[in-house]
Amino acid sequence: MFRALRIAIVCVSLGNIASCARAGSLQSSFVIPVSVGKASKPVLVAPAQTNSVTRGRSLFLKNCAHCHADDAHGDEGPDLHKLKRSDDFITRRIRNGVKGEMTAFTEKFNDSDIKSIISFLRTLN
Ligand code: HEC
User: Fold this and answer.
1) Measured from the CB, is residue 54 less than 6 Å from ligand 1?
2) Mean pLDDT throughout 7-30?
3) From ligand 1's centre to the CA of 57, what distance in Å?
4) Confidence of residue 47 (pLDDT cuts 50, 70, 90)
5) Does 13 or 32 have the greater pLDDT score?
6) C-alpha 109 to ligand 1 mean position (Å)
7) How do the domains of the chain map onto residue ranges?
8) Residue pLDDT, tens place only, 49-80
9) How far is the CA of 68 from the centre of ligand 1 (A)?
10) DSSP readout, 85-108?
């Protein structure tokens, strides 16, 4: 992922469109649709982060969306847009859940999974 970042920086600083195109298109390195559900808006994300956000979104859709809704605006669980909670809080909430309310995912997700989910949640503004 650092290689992609370096290529992006090089082609931005040289203004060399051809090398950007070879690097896999500057635009697709930076802009990905992050909203889930019908409404999707492009959000600017650093290239090194895009994989993590995409993975987080996919984990969210599989594991969280049935309670927090596909668009994360809340259903049985609360709206997760503009979360004021810290990364530590969210990590603990995902690991431990809330008895009788939210599933505990400590067995299912490793640290990198949880980081990806948090990266995705931080794009929900
Ligand atoms: C079984 C339904 C259910 C599932 C599955 C679920 N949640 Fe929740 N979640 C809830 C409920 C209900 C709450 C509110 C709990 C409370 O604070 O009383 C909650 C609270 C939260 C909060 C805290 C919000 C706040 O500001 O207090 C976060 C963050 C969160 N969930 C993220 C997730 C993520 C990420 C996943 C998937 C990995 C997930 N949840 C899966 C039901 C669920």
Assistant:
1) no
2) 44
3) 15
4) confident
5) 32
6) 15
7) 1-33, 34-121
8) 789 999 999 999 999 999 999 999 999 999 99
9) 7
10) S-HHHHHHHHHH-BTTTB---TTT
pLDDT at 46: 73
Residue 23: pLDDT band with limits 50, 70, 90: very low
Is the shortest distance between the CB of 88 and ligand 1 below 6 Å?
A: no
Our mutation pick for probing the ligand 1 site, out of 61, 66, 67, counting the most ligand atoms within 8 A of Cβ, is: 67
Please check whether the domain covering 34-121 is classified as CATH 3.20.20.70.
no
Query: pTM of the full predicted structure?
Result: 0.74
Exposed, middle or buried, 91 (CB in 10 Å: 0-12/13-18/19+)? middle
Rg (alpha carbons) of the chain, rounded to whole number: 17
pLDDT at res. 44: 74
